[in-house]
Structure formats: structure tokens, C-alpha cells
Fold this protein.
Amino acid sequence: MTKVIIAGYAGKMGQNTVKMVQDHNGFELVAVYGQPGQVSKIELGSKIQIFDDLNQINVDADVWIDFTVPTMVFENTKFAIEHNYSPVVGTTGLKDDQIKELQTMAAAKKLGGLIAPNFGISAVLLMQFAQQAAKYMPDVEIIEMHHDQKLDAPSGTALNTAKLISQVRPSHHQGNPDEKETIAGVRGGEYDGIPIHAVRLPGLIAHEQVMFGATGEGLTIRQDSFDRISFMSGVAVAVEKITNENELFVGLENIL
Ligand SMILES: NC(=O)C1=CN([C@@H]2O[C@H](COP(=O)(O)OP(=O)(O)OC[C@H]3O[C@@H](n4cnc5c(N)ncnc54)[C@H](OP(=O)(O)O)[C@@H]3O)[C@@H](O)[C@H]2O)C=CC1
Ligand SMILES: O=C(O)C1=N[C@H](C(=O)O)C[C@H](O)C1
């Protein structure tokens, strides 16, 4: 039985994760962590310990699942590694230097862990296809579309897509060198010359479109997460496999 702690249990992803862990034959939910006074719509059961202070958590567990907020994820993941809980992190917002620090900590303890910008297989495939396409079609723009409660922009998935693309294409400015924005920001933000556009609307969940253009042709790759349940099989696979690893990976594809 893999013993699990869920951080951010009362949030949108947290509630789906509580249910997935409780329904899985090989997992036992031992504790949850969230803000003071939080109530989950999902029945927790009397055996599960509820914490609202990180420093009070001292339970026997194997895996720490994190779906909290970008401002807390570094501190939480550090705490998990320090306490020998294998981190399975979906929360976005970790900076490159923070990831390196966490990887060094995990490696020193030979502790397995995963930071996944996206647990959905459609998004994992989109990122891989986009990286492949960028070798041959280096002019590209990313449009990510999310629900209007999202705190961070661009999405972790869009940023990771841009990072993967920038590994395979020469960095260059796209569009007309004399181009002028008459409305600030209208051409989007840029990662290494790749424009990223973030749409926030009620009704959306999580969607991404990567558009490539070349002389006389174009290619559009798109994925849609219509329901947060779609992330759960990726989270389950990560929890199943991560305690057999001895390093902190970035990207679900590394453990599939
Ligand atoms: N990798 C992936 O596949 C996916 C990643 N995500 C990412 O997961 C994260 C959570 O998303 P989502 O569930 O939609 O967001 P929510 O806002 O619904 O949930 C976040 C939860 O964390 C709680 N929280 C806030 N501060 C703290 C804290 N200091 N300690 C513990 N808990 C805290 C929030 O409480 P309160 O509401 O009271 O502030 C809330 O319950 C985001 O970064 C999102 O981008 C989302 C979907 C898929
Ligand atoms: O906040 C969300 O909802 C999501 N966050 C992740 C991201 O920022 O990429 C994953 C998915 O897009 C849903």
C-alpha cells in the first residue's frame, strides 16, 4: 500500500485527487494539507489527518501530491523531500533554479519524485509533437486557454512547450522586425523569441494550441482537457511508479 499525503486537498485538482487516491486499491490517503478552515466537498473519513500548518505534518507516508499555488510549491516540495516523501507535483510556478535545487536535494537522498507541468496524456503528446515539428518549422506561436480562476500566466504547460521547442530551433525574432504594437502586449509574451498568448475565460478548463507557419503552409497542434478527471490517470501512474525511482524528474513522459 502506498501511503499518500495531498497538499491543496480542497482545491479543484485536490478534490479530484482525494477521490482518485481513495478509489485506488493500492493507495492509502493518510493526511491532507490545506488552508485553515477549508472544507472539501469530498468525504475524507475519520482516519485521515487534516493539517493547515506545514510544520505540524509528521506522518508516516510515501508520496506527497501537490496541487496548491505557485507561491507555495517550492516550500512544500522542499518540505516533502526533507521528510522523505516522494513529491508528485502538479502545481505550476517552479523556477528553473528552484527545480535544480530540488533535484539536488532528491538526488542526495536517492528519492524519486516528479514535477509534471501537465498530467494529461493529450498535453504530453502535444508537447512532444510540437518539439518534433519545430525542428522543421521553426516559426511558431503558442496559444493557451484556461478557466478564469487560474493564478499564473502563461500556463506551466505553455512554458514547458516553449522550453522544449527552444531546445531544437535556433533562437530568432519572429515577424516583421519593424513591427509596432499599438496596444501594449497584443503580440503576447515571449520565451526565447516564441510568442505565447494566454486566454482566460469562464467555461474553459485547460487547452493549448501550437501554430507553426512556413512558406505556403501551416500546422496546428491542439489539445483540450475538457474535465479535470483527465489528469487523474497521469497522477495515479506517477504515484504507482515514483517510489521505485531515485531522482526528481520533470515531465510525465519520463516515467511512462
Ligand atoms: N500538472 C497538471 O496536470 C495540472 C496542474 N494544475 C496546477 O495545480 C495548481 C492547483 O490548481 P487548482 O486545483 O485548479 O487550483 P485551486 O485554487 O482550485 O486549488 C489550490 C488549493 O490550494 C490551497 N492553498 C492555497 N495556499 C495554500 C497553502 N499555503 N498551503 C496549502 N494549500 C494552499 C487553496 O486554498 P484557497 O482556495 O483557500 O486559497 C486551494 O484549495 C495550479 O498551479 C494549477 O496550475 C492544475 C491542473 C492540472
Ligand atoms: O491551472 C490549471 O487549470 C492547469 N494548470 C496547468 C498549467 O498551468 O499548465 C496544467 C493544465 O493546463 C491545467
Observations:
- The first helix runs from residue 12 to 23.
- Residues 1 and 26 are 5 Å apart (CA to CA).
- The chain has a mean pLDDT of 97.
- The domain at 121-225 is CATH 3.30.360.10 (Dihydrodipicolinate Reductase; domain 2).
